């Protein structure tokens, strides 16, 4: 398969790590990059927080010295603020690629008209994307990531994809679920195929890629130019090694690490977090959320799991990891199974009157968020 081209950047294999709040920080991205090639996107950054130089946000846009291209996802609702944020990225050389978030389904985002809600207001959506592309002025490629629509009765993905293409984006990524689905059910790969057929720019597919063979099946089913991987890599950064091998057509078997090998990756993850945060305790607090994902399906007792999920120091972590059965084989029953966030479909919270008009391009009052991270 040919490499994915985003402006001047070649992404080979054509694999993108989806931005995930609280997960895809510089440490996790480096851990994944050590496994295989691709494009690794930082956590979602809000345009207002960036423009206002929110200290937390400025820390979140840190990149490793050897991280290229540096990929930044922006969330905004106001075209003017978004343009100012993109100009800041370009003028201060903060990133090499900007992705615009139109996929977030969480209520605090959609009730302000942002994320997955915004493409319904097609004129506002087109104005915002064009403002971002114009502000980038060719210096960095701009892409968009979106969902199918608000719900099955309010689908927007083809129209939004065409509008984004007309605005000059370098690629469009589709998480093939509606906002109402959240992270439930099955991704609609047929929708990715439909979008691919409608667009001339590269089209990326996102949704239900749990194993490397899922990525190959998605490409074969949809004709997509690349894949976006989110929850499938939680507790399994070596998935990117599997993906690199699969896209290269290499015959070696997928990585199925023993529990001891998983423990070594977990320890490496913690070391990288310590470099990022600067303190042992902050690194240990952050690694706690990953413990259950790393240990999923392995024979680890409840007491040991609880202790690992409350770890405070590296010495404590090393002691607890030493109690694991290092020779325990990888649990095959977990392959192909959902990881991370799963939930039920739910009502999408929208601003009052949001669905009444598709052609209003007024920015909802109070839409811009002052904090980053989703």
Folded structure, characterized:
This protein has 374 residues and is an alpha/beta fold. The chain has two domains: 4-248, Aldolase class I (TIM Barrel, Alpha-Beta Barrel); 259-329, Non-ribosomal Peptide Synthetase Peptidyl Carrier Protein, Chain A. 38% of the residues lie in helices and 11% in strands. A nine-stranded parallel β-sheet has the order 4-3-11-10-9-8-7-6-5. Strands 1-2 form a two-stranded antiparallel sheet. Strand 10, helix 9 and strand 11 (226-229) form a beta-alpha-beta unit. Helix 1 crosses helix 11 (259-277), helix 6 packs parallel to helix 7 and helix 11 (259-277) runs antiparallel to helix 14 (314-321).
Provide the descriptors you would attach to this structure in a database record:
374 residues, alpha/beta, TIM Barrel, Non-ribosomal Peptide Synthetase Peptidyl Carrier Protein, Chain A, two-stranded antiparallel ribbon, 14 helices, FMN, RNA-binding
Helical region count? 14
> Under the CATH scheme, which architecture of the largest domain would be assigned?
Alpha-Beta Barrel
The unreliable regions are: none
Derived structural class: alpha/beta
The CATH topology assignment of the largest domain is TIM Barrel
Estimated helix fraction: 25-40%
Give the count of structural domains.
Answer: 2
The general outline is globular
What's the total number of strands? Answer: 11
Strand content: 5-15%
Distance between the termini: 33 Å
What is the CATH superfamily label of the largest domain?
Aldolase class I
> For the CA atoms, what is the radius of gyration?
20 Å
CATH top-level class of the largest domain: Alpha Beta
């Amino acid at each position: 398969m040919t490499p994915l081209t985003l402006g001047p950047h070649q992404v080979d294999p054509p694999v993108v790590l989806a931005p995930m709040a609280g997960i895809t920080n510089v440490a996790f991205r480096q851990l994944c990059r050590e496994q295989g090639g691709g494009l690794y996107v930082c956590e979602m950054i809000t345009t207002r927080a960036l423009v206002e130089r929110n200290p937390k946000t400025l820390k979140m846009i840190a990149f490793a010295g050897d991280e290229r291209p540096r990929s930044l996802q922006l969330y905004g609702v106001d075209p003017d603020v978004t343009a100012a944020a993109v100009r800041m990225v370009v003028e201060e050389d903060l990133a090499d690629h900007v992705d615009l978030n139109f996929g977030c389904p969480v209520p605090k985002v959609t009730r302000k008209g942002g994320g997955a809600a915004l493409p319904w207001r097609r004129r506002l959506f087109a104005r915002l994307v064009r403002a971002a592309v114009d502000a980038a002025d060719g210096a960095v490629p701009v892409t968009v990531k979106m969902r199918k629509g608000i719900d099955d009765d309010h689908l927007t993905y083809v129209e939004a994809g065409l509008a984004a293409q007309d605005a000059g984006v370098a690629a469009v990524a589709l998480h093939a679920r509606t906002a109402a689905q959240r992270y439930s059910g099955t991704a609609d790969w047929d929708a990715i195929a439909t979008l691919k057929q409608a667009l001339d720019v590269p089209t990326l597919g996102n949704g239900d890629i749990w194993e490397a063979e899922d990525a190959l099946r998605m490409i074969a089913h949809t004709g997509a130019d690349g894949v976006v991987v989110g929850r499938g890599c939680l507790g399994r950064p070596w998935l990117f090694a599997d993906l690199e091998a699969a896209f290269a057509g290499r015959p070696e078997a997928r990585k199925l690490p023993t529990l001891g090998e998983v423990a070594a990756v977990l320890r490496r993850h913690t070391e990288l977090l310590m470099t990022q945060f600067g303190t042992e305790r902050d690194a240990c607090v952050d690694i706690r959320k990953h413990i259950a994902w790393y240990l999923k399906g392995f024979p680890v007792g409840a007491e040991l799991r609880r202790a690992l999920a409350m770890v405070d120091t590296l010495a404590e972590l090393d002691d607890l990891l030493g109690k694991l059965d290092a020779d325990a084989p990888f649990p095959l029953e977990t392959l192909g199974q959902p990881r991370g966030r799963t939930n039920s479909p739910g009502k999408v919270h929208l601003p009052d009157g949001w669905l009444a008009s598709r052609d209003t391009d007024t920015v909802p009052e109070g839409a811009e968020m002052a904090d980053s991270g989703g």
